[in-house]
Amino acid sequence: MTSVLLIAAACLLALFSTIGASLPYPILAPLFAAGTATDLNNFLGLPPKLLLGVALAINPLGMMLGSALLGPLSDRYGRRPVLLATALGGAAGHALAALALLAESYPLFLLARFGTGLFQGNGSVARALLADKLEGDLRIRAFSWLNGAFYMGWLAGPLMAGVTVGWGITVPFWVAVGMLSLMALLVALVLPREAPSTATTSWWHVARNQHSFDLLRYPEMRVLFIVQLAYTCGVTAFYEFYPLWLVEVAGYDARGIAWTTAGLCALMTVTSLVFAGGPASVAPLRRAAWYAFGVAGAVALVAAGNFWIGMGAIILFGIPNACYNAIMPGWCAERFGSYGQGAVMGLLSTIFCLANILMALAGSVLTLVDTRLVLLLGALLSAWAGWRLRGWSVRLAVPASNAEGKPVRSANS
């Protein structure tokens, strides 16, 4: 498979997968913040905002487990079979979510969202697919294009939800089933079959002993984990709760949230495809630090500003976030590739999922007081991550082996 075809296939996989994942998000805030009580948003008489927080957290909980396992499993069994299985599993999860909404069953909806998240952890496999075959500036550029495809999915998914939800609350979920079925067909037709692995370990052995969290026994990977978790907590606080901010401040419905999200994702897509990931004289971690500060500033403006300042910050958030996400996966692939690209990319995805869970749970409590509190917390965490990245960049000016003697590939700090 040529580099062009490989990148195109990975980007299409990312696009279809993210469309399926992003379709429900404009629906959830109005569904749980609506004044009309239903069995879904009034389960056990609990506050709707608390139920929304749990519903937001359960999907990334599944993604966290999936990301930790799917990358290493693809190292063992190959990228193609894992991508095929996860596409079909994700389609089944969205179908179950649609049935749960029809039945107004909150427990069944949580089960469906968890299962869907479990299979959505396949983004790490797509990144590992590129990390396997590409090197240097082309690898970084390919990661930027892949991010652009992810953002385009976040653009197309909410728009599809806003357009189709008028035909019924379950229609966007059935659209997601169709998107993921197309993804499965794409995997089957485009990706070549891989040679059977000669390893004799079972999938359970891989899941138990070679998951992405196993990388945390290396000191430098623990630094990456802490810094990346802080940054992504800021990002996920923004993603998860700016729709609620729009509902409370401007009275937006699902369509209004969808169009706002479309503007944000359009800017991230253009930034990723045109500007991010290009060669630069400044060291990667130093650039990442400044982008983290930019993200922190945008999230803080949403929390502290009026409606128009907040709207501008929501859209402009996409520039530093897209640039940051173009740099870090490429830098990690270069520096930590000897650990297994699937495991490394899986850890990055797992961190993002863990951040989703932590901020959804924190937000479910803080929003009972004021939605702006969770946004301010996110801004502080991203700013702290930027400060730590600057310090790490100085310390890594001269690459070295890690403390346990495992070689680490050199890379600019």
What is the gyration radius calculated from CA atoms? 20 Å
Number of helices: 16
* Poorly predicted regions: 400-411
The profile of the biggest β sheet is: none
Order of helical and strand elements: HHHHHHHHHHHHHHHH
- Which whole number gives the mean pLDDT? 79
Number of DSSP-assigned strands: 0
Envelope shape: globular
Helix and strand content put the structural class at mainly alpha
Strand-residue fraction? under 5%
Could you explain how this protein is built, in words?
By secondary structure, this protein is mainly α. Helix content is 78%, strand content 0%. It is built from 16 helices and no strands. Mean pLDDT is 79; it is low at 400-411.
SSE arrangement:
Elements: H1 3-22, H2 25-33, H3 48-77, H4 79-103, H5 106-120, H6 123-133, H7 136-164, H8 171-190, H9 203-209, H10 219-250, H11 254-275, H12 284-304, H13 307-316, H14 318-336, H15 341-366, H16 371-395
Helix pairs in contact: 1-6, 1-7, 1-8, 2-3, 2-10, 2-11, 3-4, 3-5, 3-6, 3-15, 4-5, 4-8, 6-7, 6-15, 7-8, 7-11, 7-14, 10-12, 10-15, 10-16, 11-13, 11-14, 12-13, 12-14, 12-16, 14-15, 15-16
How would you sum up this structure in a few lines?
Helix 6 runs antiparallel to helix 7.
Notable traits:
413 residues; mainly alpha; 0% strand
